[in-house]
Write a structure and sequence with these properties.
single chain, about 100 residues
Length: about 100
Amino acid sequence: MLKYKTTSLLCLLSLFTFSCEDKPEEINIVDKNFLEALIEQGVDTNADGMISSAEAQAVSSLELNEKGIINMNGIEAFVNLETLRCEANPFTWINL
């Protein structure tokens, strides 16, 4: 009986541990063109269709010229960005 309880407890602890793994924080990118441009640049390394904070932090350069980007909300998550080229897009401000 004790062996059964010990095994059950270990199984429950394992399930709890796996269900509590930290999921990467998703960056809120509201502009579809911005998101598509980031995916084209290879920022979405796990191909899940979204950009995580870890993926954003791994980027040092972006080339986003003429992509039709209106809103660059989320660019502030690219904390290691050294080069940003975003000419000829219709946005009026950018939060760096």
